[in-house]
């Protein structure tokens, strides 16, 4: 969607007052003028001022309906611009472009500023939760729906962000300074400093090259995505979850569980190889390592702050036990390595003393106040005793009678502060269930604890605090220490969520205080710790780090535990650095491989604080870090892999030809399914190691090999683009299994569940594929092997992706929208018939032509039943920066996703009220598709007109993407990617793909006398209403006078000139038809804010269009002129900023 839609997505309850925005525009404009006077001189600045004045006057006259005077001034402006030499065109282009970029930041800041005014925001968590309860949703049902919600936003590397990352950073700085300037308590001196800082940023912007001088690599693109996490999402995520938690507590009386993840992020950066030969298996591996390095670095920063914050000397028995184990391991390491260890090995903490200080014992007086006494620590264990240390116990606090502590944060008077001998435990199978930590009147939502302990050998090593021996030598039978801290089940299978009916859930965190902060409060629920022991880290610290983090006696237990976490994070970073450098990592160094391995010690500290009366401290930075751990995991964003279906067919074709089985590609679908099912049932390797391969086939096998190595900790889904049949999915499953067998076989192991568990997701893109999506999935789910596999490996959950971009390019926006709506309905029914839960993955683009639009409106207009608490969707290019570039904006966007999906789940949008409405949509779709295709795909000279009238051929100079603009060389529109297809038309202000065909369809049905039916559909059917509103928004941003100017200068062939005239006439008829259906008197009548913003920008966009046309004319006569090429790229960047979208 466009950035204008992003502002719409803030969902203000009332129209934004724009006076303060205009003040910001004037401030930034005056500061830019001062900068221009210094940088380009008074003479050139006077030309900029003259052109700007002509543009403003022409725009104002047009708004006052004095079209003749407006046309005269517009012509004078055009003459001034076309007469400029190229040396003067560049600074003038930059001046208008810079102003549009600055106004974009002012608009973003204004939306944030207005959102801080009480009562201005609509559809907040508080409002939506209250609405659902008023509609009959019970608090228990609301709590369950929020905790189970699973929304994933997938950031892609699609090339729609024209601004360099350096410029994005400076723009963000300016937005932050505008926020500072709003403070009413600033002194005159402080305000002067803020203005001076803005001047410096604007000057730095002007002196910075706006153009990328080389194409980004896939790793560059991935760095940009990770930068968004570091820059904004890292801060926004815990604040968003605090807002969800507050609303949930208000309306249900319960807190959001620590491990709940209503929203997460994924990525295609480094994994999307569809049509991009630059994304190789090595690139995927490097990006995965880079993401892990960045995750470890971000966690490390938080842990460093926590180590200073958690200075308390009192802790529960488990944390003291952990600190004792860490200290013992450290001392043994020093003894074994002698003086060298003493020089280079420290505890990575403020302290890890050789002997722990006395342990404070918490007691409570009759008045309810807490006090602490000191107890001498137990004797230091021997090396053999340390090896015998048991698995860390579950960390939830218990009272002496065996009941889970629910109502107190410290033990009541007279109650011993020790847990039961055999506390109730959740089964490991419940560790990933949203409610696995909740209790229902003393029982778990998961399966029976008794059965779980009997059935899973891992559970034999999980015991209560009461079972912790006072001496390590009194522990159970020794267990070998593991080399990593990952958590998997003993049988190699991943933990599976139980799926019981959701009964009433017990209260969680936060209750009345009896004495002091945190005292008497209810601790939150916690997930069960993994059964695998957490071995203290080996210490390899540099002398600098030793000086910065010295060791001394008397350290607090929290700092010892967090110091161990810190060292493992350092080891994780070092491991990723070694892998990226091509070195063999040190397998003796403990590193954090899984979410649980990082969360477990943090949870132990969290519960300890709650037990000892420090709940208010625990619910601060530590809780924020825990929520980040569960939302971001060890890799920040799991990476999806994507490849076209024909590449997999080619690989299998090479295999069957080598095995003398014939050509796989020529087999009928039934034979493919039969052979693939047979091979998948077999456990023998299929691909001979000596098989000769082409480079393309070898790369396919190498990709699956890397996927098997990385596993599900780093990877999310494997997306098959252009999927057309059930065999396309089975082919990927076979290639995945072969790679897992090969990788595991080299290590003499069985394939791990994390290797085999990567989801395989078909992507249906074209109109025909969307219409056949339901039957294709019905065939796939009828395959016995696949149905069994889906049940065992994915718990009967199927994911299907729908493509918006290529379907729109193939059939036009209206026909594509209706096909997508129908495909979702079909898929929902097919999965329901087979007892499978469906998750839809929406591959939406940035603009309306590629499925974009306000996200809230889009989710609320989906077919009933298609959103059931689980949803995936893509965000890309300029929208990533617009939505998530600033923490305050990102926090609001995350809330919008949450509330929209919750509403669509619990209160689905209304379906078509009458069957006749669906028949009308069928007719509209057919007519619009026929009209669109007759022009785009069947008009002989359309492609040459498109190439001449738009800058599509020159977009490749932008260097905004690592991938080619075409899937295949040659061909027409069908081989062109959807992004340059939309991008080029947006630059000329025709925006053809977003509306072509719609006017013809509406006009025909209006002529048939169906005006009242269409108006009723618009007023009562969310799907039709959202479709019309988005088209109306695009029509408002288009300008046929500008489009005609491109034709008059760049198009010369008579048939192409006639085609342009016909398209502009179609545009005007589309405007008339849309206004008749909606009942509006003018475009965007129901969105006055957007209309005003467009009017404010137009005087600065028009001159850039004039300059672009003239520069295109000159460049096509002198294609090697680099100055002309740079000037053109500057106009493209400026127009993209002004239109607030690209492709």
From TrEMBL:
Q: Where is the active site?
A: 158, 809
GO cellular component terms, alphabetically, are: cytosol
Q: Where is the composition biased (Polar residues)?
A: 364-373, 440-455
Required co-factor(s) are: Mg(2+)
Q: Where is the composition biased (Low complexity)?
A: 506-523
UniProt family annotation = Belongs to the PEPCase type 1 family.
Q: Which UniProt keywords are listed?
A: Carbon dioxide fixation, Lyase, Magnesium
Instruction: State its Enzyme Commission number(s).
Output: 4.1.1.31
Composition bias (Pro residues) maps to 413-426
Note down the stretches annotated as region Disordered: 331-383, 406-539
| A Gene Ontology biological process term | carbon fixation
| Leader peptide range in chain numbering | none
Task: Specify the enzyme's EC class, one word.
Answer: lyase
Q: What is this protein called?
A: phosphoenolpyruvate carboxylase
Gene Ontology molecular-function annotations: phosphoenolpyruvate carboxylase activity
Q: Which InterPro entries match?
A: PEP_COase, PEP_COase_bac/pln-type, PEP_COase_Lys_AS, PEPCASE_His_AS, Pyrv/PenolPyrv_kinase-like_dom
The answer, when asked if Lyase is one of the entry's keywords, is yes
